[in-house]
Design goal:
About 30% of the residues lie in helices and about 25% in strands. It is α+β, with helices and mostly antiparallel strands and about 350 residues long. It folds into two domains: about 15-150, 60s Ribosomal Protein L30, Chain: A (2-Layer Sandwich), CATH 3.30.1330.10; about 155-340, PurM-like C-terminal domain (Phosphoribosyl-aminoimidazole Synthetase, Chain A, domain 2, Alpha-Beta Complex), CATH 3.90.650. The two termini are about 30 Å apart.
């Protein structure tokens, strides 16, 4: 008889502790691998001689009418946070049997093309098939980028004394998902159609891409680490930074910009914005002397940014500070958005 697992296997990421155990069993035989699989790191890095090749794969598995757009942008983000430029994209497009027609395939391909065109990314291949057992399309993206060796940024390089900058605010992606998936219910609850449309449009404005954010940050000061908080929200993103670098983080709750639309929708459905999927925001860990310079450069480029905390010590924890009171940052095993489905 199989014993009950100590880990939660409901929808979402595998538990970080289990993932570490599994990663530890993988072979790593190539000395050219500079950054391999590790909890908290966003992409792999391979030494190609004069520069580094950066590689990432990420699927879009939830139901969405913008699945192609998501697939390009979430993968490009993970290349950008390594200090690299996303250049080449591949997609495995799995379409549901009995629910697929020419129009669906054309829409997904058009979304991929438009997103790649906007970011100057070339599609170099992939795979497409109609698959049994699916009730929705799934797109698995793979992105490649490149970076000069001296410009590589890794999540594991946060240093004691560094400041932590947050761009745009939270939860951009979560706000858009709630508005898109719960539109009719929100109308029935009395929400104005214009408000719902504004929340839906957050996918594009301020948008889920952090490619510009990362480029401006690394061009404006000494950036030691970056991470884009996605599933599990800002809280999980901060914990992943902490675990990757082995540092303790202190965050000022009052400094965290929670978007008005996001707060209203999270409150409506009983979700904590700190644990709601947050693509579109970027966490930047920078030398304390350069924090204000980076914030000013981002702001001057039309990207809101604020210092929300700092690296306080060697450790592996995240503290949320409210005035003179401190408590552990909530740890979300599963993204709050999963409560809606």
């Amino acid at each position: 008889m199989r014993l009950p697992s100590q880990f939660d296997f409901s929808t979402g990421k595998l538990h970080a502790q289990l993932l570490e155990l599994l990663i530890g069993k993988l072979p790593l035989n190539d000395e050219r691998v500079v950054v391999g699989p590790k909890v908290g790191e966003d992409a792999a890095v391979i030494d190609m001689g004069d520069r580094y090749l950066v590689a990432k794969t990420d699927p879009i598995t939830f139901a969405t009418d913008e699945i192609g757009w998501y697939a390009v942008n979430v993968n490009a983000n993970d290349i950008a946070v390594m200090g690299a430029v996303p250049k080449w994209f591949m997609a495995t497009v799995l379409l549901p049997e009995g629910r697929t027609d020419e129009a669906l395939a054309e829409i997904i391909f058009s979304q991929i093309a438009n997103a790649c065109r906007e970011l100057n990314i070339t599609v170099i291949g992939g795979h497409t098939e109609v698959t049994y057992g699916l009730d929705r399309p799934i797109v698995v993206g793979a992105m490649l980028g490149e970076v000069d060796k001296e410009r590589l940024v890794v999540s594991s390089n946060a240093q004691v004394g560094d400041v932590i900058i947050l761009t745009k605010g939270i939860p951009i992606e979560g706000t858009s998902i709630i508005a898109r998936e719960k539109r009719e219910e929100l109308l029935m609850r009395g929400y104005d159609a214009a408000f719902i449309e504004r929340a839906k449009r957050m996918l594009y404005d301020p948008g889920i891409s952090v490619v510009r954010d990362a480029l401006i940050a690394t061009s404006s000061g000494r950036v030691h680490a970056m991470h884009d908080p996605t599933e599990g929200g800002l809280a999980t993103g901060l914990y992943e930074l902490s675990w990757a670098s082995g540092v303790s983080i202190e965050v000022e709750q009052g400094a965290i910009h929670i978007l008005e639309e996001g707060k209203r929708l999270c409150d409506e459905f009983g979700l904590n914005p700190l644990g709601t999927i947050a693509s579109g925001a970027l966490l930047i860990v920078a030398h304390p002397d350069d924090g204000d310079r980076i914030v000013n450069a981002l702001t001057a480029s039309g990207i809101s940014a604020v210092i929300i905390g700092r690296i306080t010590a060697i450790g592996n924890d995240v503290t949320l500070k409210r005035g003179n009171e401190c408590s552990p940052m909530p740890l979300f095993v599963k993204d709050e958005i999963a409560k809606l489905f």
